[in-house]
Amino acid sequence: MIKKYKILGLDCPNCAKSLEKAINNEKSIKKAEINFVKEYLVIDSDNQELALKDAIKVASKVEPDARIMDTSKTKKYFDKNFILNSLLLCLGLVLAVLTLAIPMPKVLFWIMYISSALLIGYKTYYKAISLIFKKIVNENLLVTLSIIGAICVGKYMEGLMVIGLYSIGKLLESIALNKSKKSIEALTNIKPEFVTILVDGEQKVVSPKEVKINDIIIVKPGELVPLDTIVLEGSSSLNMQSLTGESLPVPSKKGDNVMSGSIVLDGTLTLKVTSGYENSTVSKILNLIENAQDKKSKTETVISKIAKWYTYAVMLLSAVVFGIVWLITKDVNVAVYRGLIFLVISCPCAFAISVPLSYFSGLGNASKSGILIKGSNYLDALAKVNVVAFDKTGTLTTGEFKINNVEIYNTYTKEEIIFLASLGEQYSIHPLAKAIVSENTKQLLSVNNFKEIAGEGVSFEYNDKKYFVGKKDKTLNSTVVEVFEDDEKIANIYLSDTIKDSAKQAIDSLNDNNIKTVLLSGDKEEAVKYLSTELNLSEYYANLLPEDKYKYIEEQKQNKKMIAYVGDGINDAPALTLADIGISMGINGSGASIEASDIVLVDDNPNKVNKAIKISKFTRKIVWENILLSIIIKVLFLTLGALGITGMLSAVIADVGVTLLAILNSLRALTGTKEKQLEHKYNESNA
Q1: CA 547, 553, 555 angle in degrees (round to 5)?
Q2: 200: left (phi over 0), alpha (psi -120 to 50) or beta
């Protein structure tokens, strides 16, 4: 029997994986799976009551904050437990400052010091101890050993710094993750609430889930098409931006297929349903978003990878030193002392502090540049990206149209043609109409017998002449507007989506750094090819749906490519979620795309993608410098300590010294890279 439960309080995907593994070890459970984004725990068991009890018991040990409950219960992202933990952390930090700043008797000092350390990091210590019994060693044990080591050598402030920074970071991470989950759930807003169905000639409002294939439905202007359909009667312009990301409406007439999620702009459509609700385009998009999180690479920061083996190695080597010295000297006290020196020297404070500080500095550097990176793991993964895929409209282009050319077939001037076209387009909300009217320089007047022809254009009379502005020749590009006077074509107005000023530099910078650039767009072949050629992109793909973009990214990942996707619309959310790194636009980006992404470009500047990659590589370089510096010095003093050449004082000096050096080096990540010089060089060459 399979049953789904709600699970709250998990801080990260790795926490979810650790808990999932621990729950699967229970005999009462055949299989357990945790969906981190949707916050569900699915259990397969013959005895669900016992399985639930076992799962709750395991969660209380492995992840004390995790809460497993019935799916019908209301979810709160920031509940009493979260508020209590936050208050205890603040209280612990205040107590720590008082303890270190105010002279006091030794007994009182230790009472306050231990109290502050427990208040700040009690969850970390508990997890470290609990996970040891589950044969899991992670950063919780690393941080716990750090503070113990700091206390042993009298570095009380450093000990509290380690646990303080770590606990604050986990709190902020929890807030960011919960906000992202909440926003991703908001994507369900694109689900249709109702559908008007024809039953024996009468209209009836029902839920989309009740509609069957071949049922007839009615969709009026401004309404959402609830299911995949085919047009039986009527014509209209459809807003398909939520599906393709393109702002240009698509004409639809009898016999055309219409996807769910499209919005009818004008005209009433009578449609025949061609697929059930579960197989509709909207449902597929939502399913892609949910499944993408499970397929997303679980990138780890460098410190997590090293910490996994470092603690094991130190404990084992300490025991080896103790054993060898005891065998040689036959003195257990000497053996214990040298083993203790080994542990003190190997205290991981240097990279327990400097590595997070390096990432914080890198994140701060990016933030100053208008690049918001949601976590150090994304900053770390960004350095490995070798493919960057871009959406078109709103990402590399502005999404706003302008007139490129006016082809005139009589004696009218360009200004007069634009004026005549604007007389009719002044009443339209179509993006091309707005673009034409915006370039008109004459005073617009009222017209007679104005009529809007759904999916074609507008007709009207002016100065005793009949005019049509729109498209009669369907073979023309979708961004061409025809102007007719008394049934005679007098002009073609050619428009195009404007390319962002920073787009060319963005692509050039990535190409220069041997990063493959790809354009993935739902727009027509001609427009996508033109943009790709103009910007010199490596590859381009046109006429794509969200599912097609998703498949492309999936293929790249299967081919061992590290791919970043840059987009701005709701339709980009599945691709943003699946990509190793999802990058969204901060100004014009939809709320869903911003929250589904890992990085947000505050000013919508695509050139910031390359800058973010450079910052990530620079930060990762500093992280490795700190790690190697720490390891080299520690190995040297570990050897000297094991041989009895250095004592506890030397161990303390070595540890403090390397920690200070690593911290100072970490701050370099805050100052930036050579990116400014490169931008200056580019501007000079293009001046």
Answers
A1: 100
A2: left
